[in-house]
Every structure is written in structure tokens, then in C-alpha cells.
Design goal:
Chain A: Its main location: membrane. Chain A: This is AP complex subunit sigma. Chain A: Belongs to the adaptor complexes small subunit family. The complex is a heterodimer of chains A (164) and B (879). With 164 residues, chain A is an alpha+beta fold. Chain A has one domain: Beta-Lactamase (2-Layer Sandwich), CATH 3.30.450.60. Chain A is 40% helix and 24% strand. In chain A, the strands form 2 sheets. In chain A, strands 3-2-6-5-4 form a 5-stranded antiparallel β-sheet. In chain A, strands 7-8 form a two-stranded antiparallel ribbon. The longest helix of chain A has 19 residues, at 99-117. Chain A is globular, with a radius of gyration of 18 Å. The model of chain A is unreliable at 1-20 (pLDDT under 50). With 879 residues, chain B is an alpha+beta fold. Among the domains of chain B are: 419-610, Leucine-rich Repeat Variant (Alpha Horseshoe), CATH 1.25.10; 764-872, Sandwich (Immunoglobulin-like). Chain B is 58% helix and 8% strand. A 5-stranded antiparallel β-sheet of chain B has the order 3-4-5-8-7, with no helix packed on it. In chain B, helix 12 runs parallel beside helix 14 (262-276) and helix 29 (541-557) runs parallel beside helix 31. Chain B starts with 13 loop residues before the first helix and ends in a 7-residue tail after the last strand. The model of chain B is unreliable at 1-10, 105-110 and 624-759 (pLDDT under 50). The chains are: A alpha+beta (164), B alpha+beta (879). Chains A and B meet through strand 1, strand 3, helix 1, strand 4 and helix 2 of A and helix 1, helix 3, helix 5, helix 8 and helix 9 of B. Strand 1 of chain A pairs antiparallel with strand 6 (802-810) of chain B.
């Protein structure tokens, strides 16, 4: 082949800047010691980037008091977090997302886990990581909220448990 | 390694592994456990073990969550997906979604295996999309919606379209969200989905509704046709949905604190905003329902406030009636006075957006907002500061600035940087009142001089240089500040520069202002202050170098102190920092042997060209060193770079001065500008700027920098071999590059190596049309031949401004591309300033295939959309 190599027709157009969307970009559960207990990213980050991001965000959130607001700006994310006992639940969103609704979403997620595990604790999440992922997957897909009814969220999981 | 006898192949239970990891005391122990587990899993994989596949996948997910590489498990996911049972499929799909994102790193170089992998995924997902079990269909949709690439999207889009019509609501909602990913990957497909998206809004199931609403929002972003279509066809449905959920009686499954499904509320309001933006008819159509939501929603719980917040944003975003706007602003006022910090935060956030709509209404809350700047919570402080910054105008600038500067004194260390940057920016924006500007800058330098950026204090110096009536006042104020706050680096630099230039105004109280108290400063007091600054242990190289220049200048201004200055300079002749040593040796040579020309050599600097500085500063905040440096080197006659010297002494005496006259290589090719160059080097400061406090690199391009030549060479260029290099060395340099040939004081300057490097990759005009020119300049990091940083600069050749400018690029598979955001989305008319954007390309077949790129540019001229495309094949060889 000589001359300039052909540029394929069917190429993804990459665009500068962030996506400008209004989706979740990651969901993290972290304990008070800063250990990650669940991580779900809706955009590509390398392992090193993830580790750095988790470390930085957790440090920022742990340093805050209960009276301070539940939003932390970090790099080009806005992190909405909420603390339940020893666990922090963090959701990274784009800048024009409705922060209050995300707070409500975190609560819904915790309530859903509560309903399934009965008073959910850190160990439940660790030992049943895949189940928590299933729940999250029923609630959020590709960063968008897909279902908000606890009953609908848990139905496939209960079905699976019954069959096995 | 013989895997058959691997002792770990039997494996531990998931629970045991987690326990083992939990009991680890150190990171090293944890790594050891993970390594052992990974080895066992790899062994199981290569043995084709089936019994533990499910469990191994669960382990891998846990290991992945801890941040360890797990790419070797990706194929296992596919095997699980291919299995018949639901639990296997379930975990297989989950693994695929979690572990797959590493694929890009690991398999990028092996394009074939990536293709094969994608093929297998498409095969499996395609099969499961047609499965009779709705849960399995749901799994496949979910996976596709999370990970599909453009190719996969095209292959499977028809299946997904079909599933949008499925009877099962759970399948429908997942198909809708999957379509979002497809449309995002391939915007051309948007039109295929808009019909079904609009009809989904007639459903009852909330999951379907919320998914459909989000799909509609995405379609509007992807295509204007879709936006028009949905505006016509779904506004009515949206109003109905919103009315139904807000009026509905208690619905236990969706109830949150007495409100039915706030999530659906929020998404619907968002879509309404998208549809009614800049459209009067649809704005009017939703006016009533917005008013109803804004007045009826309970505001004592978070869920209600989330809805109100979204509703306000929608009202601000559309062509709302004035009554509705007042309603919205009142809600924000209530939010702002709320005791809950979360509510105050979102109020500040929203007020930023409201400024564009109704500045006056926001100004009314100024006092409250200013209080928020001083809040204990950094998130609120940051938002409030941004907002105050936007609120500042001619009438309130002085009082607001005073408040901010006062607060600078007591604010947290980590907030000072933001605050300083904002204050400097405000003060510069309203610098017509020069005295006020100077006063504020002096205060900021005194309080937070360590946080002031280089370009800011450079601008201050340029302004002082031009304001002859205020020079006396400035030097006296700075002297006082220097004595009080000598630890603030930028303050010291500015003060020392001023004392060097305007020393006589300091001691003689020249051009006193009415408001000033006369001060008594003797000549030796002034020298004391500078000496103290020079000797302060924490001063960095640039500051010390500026102190030396200042002393040199003072020796001519204050003849009685000249002996003492000579001593101080002598002391530094043995300085371990090469730059300071070189300077001291040169300066003491001037002091000792060249009294005759000293006074003319050390005259005051010529007035700096303000307009040119501002222009250059604006450009340099965008441009990187790579693009500007060669340009400078190529135009040695540039008057900005080479300020008019002191009466242009002839070349010979200057060479004499340096005591190198015997064999000074005054080559015939030496340009006439040589003496100027000399002077520049004489003033030159910090060629090797190794100080951590050194300025931001981009700042190194402005004129003042060039004038003082502060910190121009990156450290990796090594120490300048410098003034002791034999003149023969100078002669061997390529003469045409710069006037460096006669650059005796400066044996090796950074621009040489830079220009050599850049010479290999000349800038190109990548694209030119009747309206637009795009130029690319290139830079490579040493040691990374594959990677090229491209600085794209866009120039508008027409007489109308281009708005909504978007530059897009596509590259062949073997190249990776990263685009940073453009500096602006508006190209001013007639090439009046340009927009820049940086790209990073990694050529994975560096040396075998040249770079190639296709570009697409979209913009608006007078509101009319235009699109231009082109292919760039004239990249310089070797990129």
C-alpha cells in the first residue's frame, strides 16, 4: 500500500470535552478505612486512574463533617455522597446533574439492599458482591437510571435464588 | 511451568478468599494473597475447568474491585455467557461488563484478537437477544447497553429496535436504554429510533417511561431532525406524565417521602427543557404545568426539593413568562436561606445559571452569597466564589473586592489559591483606576504572594512601567510591603524589580501622592532590603537572580553603596547554583572593569509595550511552549523579544566588556541585532529554573519573560555549559537559527535544543477553506516516539464570527486519539484571535505507517449550520 493509508469510513468520531450528558459516571462504596467495597464505572478509566481517583475522592469525603453538604467537586466530576454507618456511598456525576435526585437515588439503593439482605452491612456487600452488582445493574444502565421500584429491581434476583 | 501439578488448582472458596484478604495487615500481604489466587484461577482456566468457572468469576470480580489486573478472565466470561443456564449467563455478563474495560489497554496492540473477541461477543449477544426467556434477553440488552462499540451498535441495532416493541415492559425499558448507547455511538441511527421512542411515552410502567424519556433526551442531542420530531410529537405526552405523577394518589412502590417517583419528575422536566429551549410555542405550552409543579411540590423533604430544583432549571432554560421566572427566583431565594447545606449548595449552583437570565434578581441576594464565600464548607465556598465573581460589575467592584481581599487574610491555606486567582482576575478586569489596581495588587501580593501566578505579576510590572506618575508611589508601597511580608515570593520579585528600576524615587520621595505619608529610606536601607531578600533561605533561583540584577542597577543609582554591592555580588561568585554563579561573575566584571559604560548599560528599562503584552499574554495562555518558542526563534528581529537597548552601544565595546574580545567570534553572519541580544542576556534571569516555585510553563512566553528571560529552559536540558565554553564552540553553532552566535554570555541557551527538536516537525496548514484555516504544530516528548502532541489552531477567515464551533477528528485503527476541549466555541471574525485545541495521537505503528486523520468541523454562521470535512495527509514524516 502506498500513499496515505485510508481512513476507514466507519470510525467513531471522538469529540473534545466531556460528554456533557447527565448520567452517572461511577458508583463507589467505600468504608471508613478508605477501602473500596464496590466499584462500578460507566466510562473507561485505566486501573491506575481508578486507583488514584478512588484514593483522592475518598480522602476528600472522609475529611468532611456531617454538617457539610454532600457534594464534592473533584476534577471534572461532581461527587454526591452519603454515609450510612461505616460505609460511604459515592456517585460521580457530570456537572449538570441534579445532585438532590442523586442523593435520593443513593438512598433508594440502600433501601433496596436493606430489603434484600435485611439491615444490610459491609460484610453482606463483600460476600455478595455479585448480587449487589445485579441490583445496581437493574437500577442503572450505562449511567442512566432504568428502574426505581424496589420490587421490580429485586424480582430477577429473587427468581434466580429460588431456582438455584 | 507445569500447570498440571499446580498445587492451587483446586482453589479456595470465595468466602475464604475474602476472609484471607481481610485479615491482611499490609498491602504486601494482600498482594501475595491476590497473586496466589490469580495463579490458581489462571491454572483453572488453562485446564478448562468448568465446575469452578462461576466461582472463579466471582473471585475475579472481587480482585478487580481491589484494583488488580484481571484481563485474563475475559475469555472465561464469554464461556459462561455461552453456557445454557441462567446463573452462569448472569455472572458471565456481569463479568463481561466489569472486566471488559481493560480490554482497550491489553488488546489494543493486537487488533486481530480484539476483532475476534468482539465478533464472539456480537455472536453471543445476538443469540441471547432472540432468546425465549425474557430475563436472558434483558441480560443481553443490558450488556450491549453498557459496553457496545460503534461496530457492535450497527450490527445489533435492528434487533434492539425490534425489542422496543416487545410486550414485556422490562424488556422494553432495557431496549430503550440500550438504544441510548447505540445512538451515542452512531448518531446517524437516531432517526430510526425516534418513532418508537415517542410511542413508548404512552406506556404506564414507570421503568419504561423513565427509560423512554432519557432516550428522547439523547435523541435530541444526536440529531436536529429528531429534536423537531419529538417537539411536535411528545410534548403533550410529557405534560400528561408529569400531571399524572404529581397528582397521583399514594403509590407505595414509587413513593419517596410522600412524592411519587421524583426520578421520573426530574427526567421529564429535563426533557421538557431540552425540547423547549429557544422555542416560544412549546415554552408556552408547558407554562401551566411548570407553574403547577413549582407551586404544589412540597419543599420540606429532599425529594421535593430535587423536583423544585429541576423545575427552576427548566424555567430558567426556556422562554418562560416573567411571572414564572419570578416564581423560580423566589424558590431560589428560599433555598439560599435554607439551613440545609445541600439546599444552599444547589441554590448557588442554580443562581449561576440564573445570572444569564436575570442579573438584577441575583444581585439582590449578593449579601447572602458573599456570606457563603466565608462558609465553613469548601464546596459551598467554591460555588459562592464563582458566583460572586460573576456578579461583580462597575458599581460594586470596589466593595466586593475589598470583602474578598479582607477574607484572603483569614481564609484556609487551600482556599487561598482559588481566591487569589479570582481576585487577581477581577482586579485586572477593572484596572482602569490604576491607583486602585495597584493598591489591591500590593495587598494581594502581601497576603498571598505565593499563590499569584507569573502572568499576573508580569502584567503588574508592565502596568507600572507605563504609569510614570505612580512609579514613586509603587516603589515606596512595595518597599514597605517587602519589609513586612518578605516571605511571599511574587511580592519579593515585584518589589525587587521596582527598587532596581525606581530606586531613586524610593529614597527621595519623588512624585508623592496626596494621600501618602513621606517615608525616610536611605540608600543603604534599600540595599539592606534587597540583600535580605537575596539571602533569605527559602528564596528560589529566579528571585535571587532578580535580586542580583536589582543590586547591579542600584550600584549605578546609588554610587555610595557601590562598594558594598560589589562585595555582595562577589560573595555569590562561588554560589553552587550555576545560574547565580554565572550572573555574579558577569556582574562583578561589569562593576570592576567597565565603569565607563556602566551607567548607560544600567539605565532604566524602556517602557514596556502594554498592548503587545496583553496580546501576547492572551495567546500564551492557550499556546504551549512548543508552538510559540520556535516562532520566536525564527524572528530574531521581533521588537518585543529584543527591547530597545540602552542607546544601542556598538558591538565591540560590549564584547570587550565581557573580556572575551580577543577571540570573540564576531562572525560576518552575525545579525545587526546582536547588541540587543547581549543586553537581553545581561538582564537574563534564570536560564535554568529548577525551583519548585517556578512559574507555570505556559507563562514563559510573554514579553516580560523574554525581556528578563526568566526560567526558559526546562531542567532536563542540563546545566548550561555556559559562559566558559570556548568561543570556538559558539562558532560551530548553526548561524542562521538565532543570533546566538555572538551570544557570549549565554553559551547554551534553551532555545537551541528546542528549535532543533521542533525543526524536525514543522507546523502545517492542515486544512484551509474559504472560511477557515486550521494549523497544526507538533511536539514530541523525548523517549515516546509514538506519541505526538498536536496543537491545533483555528482561524476564521471570514468577516462574521463562527459560533458553536466543534472540531472532530477520526483516525485509523492503529492510531489512538485524545482530544482535549477547545479553548472556545466561538471563532471571532477576520482572524481576530484564534481558538486552539490540543490533540494527542499515539501511532501504534510508528515508523511503519504515517499519521493520517480525517477531520470534521461544524459551526454556525449567523445561526445557520455549516459542516466542513477534510483529510489530512500532509503530516511531517516520522510522526
Amino acid at each position: 500500500m502506498n500513499g496515505s493509508p485510508e481512513v476507514e469510513e466507519r470510525l467513531p468520531w471522538s469529540r473534545g470535552g466531556n460528554r456533557g450528558g447527565d448520567d452517572d459516571r461511577f458508583v463507589l462504596f467505600v468504608n471508613k478505612q478508605g477501602q473500596t467495597r464496590l466499584a462500578q464505572y460507566y466510562e473507561h478509566l485505566s486501573l491506575d486512574e481508578r486507583r488514584a481517583l478512588e484514593g483522592e475522592i475518598v480522602r476528600k469525603c472522609l475529611a468532611r463533617t456531617d454538617q457539610q453538604c454532600s457534594f464534592v467537586e473533584h476534577r471534572n466530576y461532581k461527587v454526591v455522597y452519603r454515609r450510612y454507618a461505616s460505609l460511604f456511598f459515592l456517585v460521580g456525576v457530570d456537572n449538570d446533574e441534579n445532585e438532590l435526585a442523586i442523593l435520593e437515588f443513593i438512598h433508594l439503593l440502600v433501601e433496596t439492599m436493606d430489603r434484600h439482605f435485611g439491615n444490610v452491612c459491609e460484610l453482606d456487600i463483600m460476600f455478595h458482591l455479585e448480587k449487589v452488582h445485579f441490583m445496581l445493574e437493574e437500577m442503572v444502565m450505562n449511567g442512566c437510571i432504568v428502574e426505581t421500584s424496589k420490587q421490580n429491581i429485586l424480582a430477577p434476583i429473587q427468581l434466580m435464588e429460588k431456582s438455584s | 511451568m507445569d500447570l498440571a501439578i499446580n498445587p492451587f488448582s483446586s482453589g479456595t472458596r470465595l468466602r475464604d478468599m475474602i476472609r484471607a484478604i481481610r485479615t491482611c495487615k499490609t498491602a504486601a500481604e494482600e498482594r501475595a494473597v491476590v497473586r496466589r489466587e490469580c495463579a490458581a484461577i489462571r491454572a483453572a482456566i488453562s485446564e478448562g475447568d468448568q465446575d469452578y468457572r462461576h466461582r472463579n468469576m466471582a473471585k475475579l470480580m472481587f480482585i478487580h474491585m481491589l484494583g488488580y489486573p484481571t484481563h485474563f478472565g475475559q475469555m472465561e466470561c464469554l464461556k459462561l455467557i455461552a453456557a445454557a443456564g441462567f446463573p452462569e449467563k448472569r455472572i458471565g455478563y456481569l463479568g463481561l461488563m466489569l472486566l471488559l474495560d481493560e480490554r482497550q489497554e491489553v488488546l489494543m496492540l493486537v487488533t486481530n484478537s480484539l476483532k475476534h473477541f468482539e465478533y464472539l461477543v456480537v455472536l453471543n449477544v445476538g443469540r441471547d437477544l432472540n432468546h425465549s426467556n425474557q430475563f436472558i434477553v434483558g441480560l443481553a440488552l443490558c450488556a450491549l447497553g453498557n459496553i457496545c462499540s460503534a461496530e457492535m451498535a450497527r450490527d445489533l441495532a435492528p434487533e434492539v429496535e425490534r425489542l422496543l416493541q416487545n410486550r414485556d415492559p422490562n424488556t422494553k425499558k432495557k431496549a430503550a436504554l440500550c438504544s441510548i448507547r447505540i445512538v451515542r455511538k452512531v448518531p446517524d441511527l437516531a432517526e430510526n429510533f425516534m418513532g418508537s421512542a415517542a410511542s413508548l411515552l404512552k406506556e404506564k410502567h414507570h421503568g419504561v417511561l423513565i427509560s423512554a424519556v432519557q432516550l428522547c433526551t439523547e435523541l435530541c442531542k444526536a440529531s436536529n431532525d429528531a429534536l423537531e420530531y419529538l417537539r411536535k410529537n411528545c410534548l403533550e405526552g410529557l405534560v400528561r406524565i408529569l400531571r399524572d405523577v404529581s397528582n397521583s394518589s399514594y403509590a407505595p412502590e414509587y413513593d419517596i417521602a410522600g412524592i411519587t417517583d421524583p426520578f421520573l419528575h426530574v427526567r421529564v422536566l429535563k426533557l421538557m427543557r431540552t425540547l423547549s429551549q429557544a422555542d416560544a410555542d412549546s415554552s408556552e405550552y408547558i407554562n401551566d404545568i411548570l407553574a403547577q409543579v413549582a407551586t404544589k411540590t412540597e419543599s420540606n423533604k429532599n425529594a421535593g426539593n430535587a423536583i423544585l430544583y429541576e423545575c427552576v432549571e427548566t424555567i430558567m432554560g426556556i422562554e418562560a413568562t416573567s411571572g414564572l421566572r419570578v416564581l423560580a427566583i423566589n424558590i431560589l431565594g428560599r433555598f439560599l436561606s435554607n439551613r440545609d447545606n445541600n439546599i444552599r449548595y444547589v441554590a448557588l449552583n442554580m443562581l449561576m445559571k440564573a445570572i444569564a437570565v436575570d442579573t438584577q434578581a441575583v444581585q439582590r441576594h449578593r449579601a447572602t452569597i458573599l456570606e457563603c464565600v466565608k462558609d465553613a464548607d469548601v464546596s459551598i465556598r467554591k460555588r459562592a466564589l464563582e458566583l460572586v465573581y460573576l456578579l461583580i460589575n462597575d458599581t460594586n467592584v470596589k466593595s466586593l473586592t475589598k470583602e474578598l481581599v479582607d477574607y484572603l487574610e483569614v481564609s484556609d491555606q487551600d482556599f487561598k489559591e482559588d481566591l487569589t486567582a479570582k481576585i487577581c482576575s477581577v482586579v485586572e478586569k477593572f484596572s482602569q483606576d490604576k491607583l486602585w489596581y495597584l493598591d489591591q495588587m500590593f495587598r494581594v501580593l502581601s497576603l498571598a504572594g505565593n499563590y499569584v501566578k507569573d502572568d499576573v505579576w508580569h502584567a503588574l510590572i508592565v502596568l507600572m512601567s507605563n504609569a510614570s506618575e505612580l512609579q514613586g508611589y509603587s516603589v515606596r508601597s512595595l518597599y514597605k510591603a517587602l519589609l513586612a511580608c518578605g516571605e511571599q515570593e511574587s511580592l519579593v520579585r515585584v518589589a525587587v524589580w521596582c527598587i532596581g528600576e525606581y530606586g531613586e524615587m524610593l529614597v527621595n520621595n519623588i512624585s508623592m501622592l496626596d494621600l501618602e505619608e513621606p517615608i525616610t529610606v536611605t540608600e543603604s536601607d534599600a540595599v539592606d532590603a534587597v540583600e535580605a531578600a537575596l539571602k533569605r533561605y527559602s528564596a528560589d533561583v529566579t528571585t535571587r537572580a532578580m535580586c542580583l540584577v536589582c543590586l547591579l542597577k542600584l550600584s549605578s543609582r546609588f554610587p555610595p553603596t557601590s562598594e558594598r554591592i560589589k562585595e555582595i555580588v562577589e560573595q555569590n561568585k562561588g554560589n553552587t547554583v550555576l545560574e547565580l554563579q554565572q550572573r555574579s561573575i558577569e556582574f562583578s566584571s561589569i562593576l570592576q572593569r567597565h565603569q565607563s559604560i556602566k551607567s548607560s548599560l544600567l539605565e532604566r528599562m524602556p517602557v514596556l509595550d502594554e498592548a503587545n503584552y496583553l496580546l501576547k499574554r492572551a495567546a500564551s495562555t492557550q499556546a504551549t511552549i512548543s508552538s510559540v518558542k520556535p516562532a520566536l526563534a525564527a524572528t530574531p528581529g521581533d521588537p518585543l523579544k529584543l527591547p530597545n537597548g540602552v542607546g544601542k552601544p556598538p558591538a565591540a565595546p560590549l564584547a570587550d566588556l565581557l573580556d572575551l574580545s580577543d577571540d570573540a567570534p564576531v562572525t560576518p553572519s552575525a545579525p545587526a541585532a546582536a547588541p540587543n541580544d547581549f543586553l537581553q542576556d545581561l538582564l537574563g534571569i534564570g536560564l535554568v529554573d529548577s525551583s519548585p516555585a517556578g512559574g507555570v510553563p505556559s507563562a514563559s512566553t510573554d514579553i516580560l519573560m523574554d525581556l528578563l528571560s526568566i526560567g526558559s529552559s526546562p531542567v532536563q536540558n542540563g546545566p548550561p555549559t555556559s559562559n566558559f565554553s570556548p568561543p570556538g564552540k559558539a562558532e560551530t553553532k548553526p548561524a542562521p537559527v538565532t543570533p546566538q552566535v555572538v551570544d557570549l554570555l549565554d553559551g547554551l541557551s534553551s532555545s537551541e535544543s528546542l528549535s532543533d527538536e521542533n525543526a524536525a516537525y514543522p507546523s502545517i496548514t492542515a486544512f484551509q477553506s474559504a472560511t477557515l484555516r486550521i494549523t497544526f504544530s507538533f511536539k514530541k516528548q523525548p523517549g515516546k516516539p509514538q506519541e505526538t502532541a498536536i496543537n491545533a489552531s483555528f482561524t476564521n477567515l471570514t468577516t462574521t464570527a463562527l459560533t458553536d464551533f466543534i472540531f472532530q477528528a477520526a483516525v485509523p485503527k492503529f492510531i489512538q486519539l485524545r482530544l482535549d476541549p477547545a479553548s472556545s466555541s466561538t471563532l471571532p471574525a477576520s482572524g481576530n484571535g484564534s481558538v486552539t485545541q490540543s490533540l494527542t495521537v499515539t501511532n501504534n505503528q510508528h515508523g511503519q505507517k504515517p499519521l493520517a486523520m480525517r477531520i470534521r468541523v461544524s459551526y454556525k454562521v449567523n445561526g445557520e449550520d455549516r459542516l466542513e470535512q477534510g483529510q489530512i495527509s500532509n503530516f511531517p514524516a516520522g510522526l
